[in-house]
Amino acid sequence: MVTTADEVTQAFLFSMAANQCATFGPGDPDATLAAIVERARAHTADGTAVALPIGDPTLDDLGVAPALLAAGLTLLRPDDPEWFPGLVVAGVGVTSSIAAVAATGNVALGAGVGLPRATSLLPPAHVCVVRASQVYATFPDAISGLLHAGPLPSALTWIGGPSRTGDLEMRTTFGVHGPKVVDIVLLQD
Amino acid sequence: MSGKGLVTPGPTMKARSKVAVGDPQLQAALSNLDLRLFTAGVVQAEHPEWKDRVAEIRRETLADLDGWIDKLESKLLSLGVVVHRAATPEEARRYIIGLAQREGVARVIKSKSMATEEIDLGRALEAVGIESVETDLGEYIVQLADERPSHMITPAIHKTLGQIADVLSKEAGTDLPVVREPLTAWARDKLREKFVGADMGITGANFVAADTGTIVVVTNEGNGRFCTSLPRIHVAVVPVEKVIPRFDDLGVLLPTLVMSATGAKMSNYLSMVTGPRREGEIDGPEQLHVVLLDHNRRVLLGTPYEDMLGCIRCGACLNVCPVYRSVGGHAYDSSYSGPMGKILTPLVTGGEEGRDLPFASTLCGACTEACPAEIPLADLLVRLRADLRTPGPVVVAGADQPAPPPALPVDHAGRSPAAHPAARRKPGEGYATPVTRIHVPTRRAPWSRRRAGFEAWARLWSYPSTYRASLAVGRLGAKVLRPKAGWVRRAPMLHAWTDSRDVLVPAGATFRERWAARERGDERW
Q: How far apart are CA A128 and CA A151, in angstroms?
């Protein structure tokens, strides 16, 4: 049974790795930022853009946008009139989560103004920043927690890892419709 | 159903089953079900308390289904969702096609949904010239092959990888390798073209929470996310029993559903949609429509069949069913197959379809055991067999049942939910007998030679003396017939019973006789 915050964090990373995600952290803000930049660079090595929301409190606090620009990467933001066609060819979408679950290994993303649903859907890779304080031990805990945290967003999307299917002779095959790669960067806060 | 799109065609389930067991490709494909044979037990092993909680939530919902539907409807309306109540599949299709035509929709992308299968929506859209694309990989394969899904979780389970490669290669116009990854990659690219620029996304709903108006769609591939995020119109087709009282109930319902379906701890993606896109958001549907489908469901409230509405469509009963595992989904020739399909099909079609399905069962009870919602499936099968004896709509046995509520749409004015007879039922209290026992219907079947035969047999074996005498006769008969092995298959008049059965030639003495001999010190035993 997972009890302390530290154990919850470790169990979360273990579950995400079991779901075929690459995991980074837990780290302080500097280490987290460095990991985000490194992953974004890796996924855009072919010169594609990094899709980044506007007004995401976690990403703004870390200063992700200036760091990515300083690293010489191309940013695609939701206020760009070419956002949607750009997203179709972007290399990676970077988001934060509003909750995560240790036992089942999944992260919850909320849609909102500046936080489009498609950021974590269309690009072939997804980098998700998770605050350790938002990791719940179990799925029922997270559902109750989100319910009491305020009004539900218009779209609440739970992600376990890279897109997969069991439709071909019931054997798991990755990379169907959603991202083929999911990186989880855990911020110790 | 029309019999269209089946790999095992035939006029009856029996005939289709015969085709199915003689199809080596189908049998090879069905052997993959072995991978899901034990998934139903995972919930029981890891979270034994969940099944009771799920059953409790479902019974609480059904005890006042109309009340929860009303609550859901007002919540959805307050979120800006358009709600349409459809009493029949025809009404649901008419509403959705009308909406699509009014909005100038050229292409619809569909996420796998049993409800849209039930109302045959995809074909109805195609019939009026609207392109309808199934986006779940298995469902896409089935659509390209012009077949029907054969399993509610894994629609193309009836196909081997080689057959799947053939279907996709034909569409691609080139020979794709018989390897899962490149086949998946090809489908990804192909369906991407379809996602972008689709005007309408159609999904079902695994659950809809009455208190928050949240529609939940469970997928692994991400196609559900596309269908609920990109098109400007999202239509969710929701059978009325999909409503759950509270968002908080999802905490137990979702992991139980997923674990029972695949054995995984959680599905890869969950889309929880609460209303259309909001002010300032740049994606998500501008219009969200919820079609609440009744289709003979609410008339089951207050009857012993009410429990069937507790089904959460996990497919666990299919995976463990010896009949399903032998013949596959197409032998059922209905949208819903397996044990739950045998019960639900005759009920929702008002007895017009699938009347022979409940009889294609061994009554082994594996389905009842597997069901995470604790539905007494084997009991219901036995009951339904009795109730289907009279032609026409299913007549529910028992004189004490309350009058069924009227069909949707309904005038709720002045009717208190508590006045509904089902509301008196406490959570956890079932109409049907305990789940581990097969219930024998109280209504006596009409006289027939078969019944007289069974009754005579029952009397004969009710007393030790006549039982032993019958065995002696049997042994004598066996001795005479021993040189003619296989005779049972050719027995006249009994062929319905004997076609697929034979008897082994009995041993010379019974176990009891051998035991008695051993006690006497007879060394031969």
A: 22
Dihedrals φ, ψ of A182, to 5°?
A: -130, 125
At B186, which amino acid appears? W
Task: For residue A77, give the amino acid letter.
Answer: R
What is the C-alpha end-to-end distance of chain A, expressed in Å? 23
Most distant CA pair in chain A, distance = 49
Query: CB-based contact (8 Å) between A88 and chain B?
Result: yes
Note the pLDDT of residue B404. Answer: 45
CA dist B205 to B113, B273, B299, Å? 7, 10, 22
pLDDT digits 0-9 by tens, A103-147: 999 999 999 999 999 999 999 999 999 999 999 999 999 999 999
Collapse the DSSP code of B275 into the 3-class scheme (helix H, G, I; strand E, B; otherwise coil) and give the result: coil
- DSSP assignment of A100-150 equals EETTTTEEEEE-BTTB-GGGGTSSSEEEEEEEGGGEESSHHHHHHHHHHTS
Closest CA to A159 of A127, A116, A113: A127
What residues of chain B score a pLDDT lower than 70? 1-3, 393, 395-446, 481-491, 500, 502-508, 525
| Paired sense of beta strands A135-136 and A155-159, if any | unpaired
B276-315 core/surface letters (b: 16 or more CB in 10 A; e: else) = bbbeebbbbbebbbbbbbbbbbbbbbbbbbbbbbbbbbbb
Among the partner residues B180, B254, B266, nearest to A168 by beta-carbon distance: B180
Distance CA A27, CA A61 (A): 15
Q: Tell me the domain boundaries of chain A.
A: 5-162+179-187
Residue with tokens 């919902």: B61
The amino acid present at B279, given as its one-letter code, is E
Biggest CA–CA distance in chain B, Å, is 92
Q: What part of A 141-170 touches B (C-beta under 8 Å)?
A: 141-144, 147, 152-170
Phi-psi region of B120 (alpha: psi -120 to 50; beta: other; left: phi over 0): left
What would the two tokens of residue A77 be? 């933001």
Strand partners, B243: B208
Residue type present at position A175: G
Interface touch B270/A158, C-beta < 8 Å: yes
CATH 3.40.50.10420 fits A5-162+179-187, yes or no: yes
Contact flag A157-B156 (C-beta cutoff 8 Å): no
- Compute the distance between CA of residue A144 and CA of residue B256 in angstroms, rounded to an integer: 16
Closest to B389 measured CA to CA, from B451, B344, B434, B340: B451
**Domains of chain B, first to last:** 25-37+63-293 (3.40.50.10420), 456-519 (no CATH)
ipTM for this prediction: 0.97
Q: What is the pLDDT of residue B475?
A: 77
Is B403 strand, coil or helix?
Answer: coil
| DSSP H or E segment with residue A89 | helix A83-89
Query: B315 and B338 in contact (C-beta within 8 Å)?
Result: yes
Kindly provide the b/e burial profile for residues A152-176, where b requires at least 16 CB atoms within 10 angstroms of the residue's own CB: bbbbbbbbbbbbbbbbbbbeebbbb
Chain A residue numbers with beta carbons less than 8 Å from the beta carbon of B269 are 157-160, 163, 178
Backbone angles phi, psi at A84, to 5 degrees: -70, -50
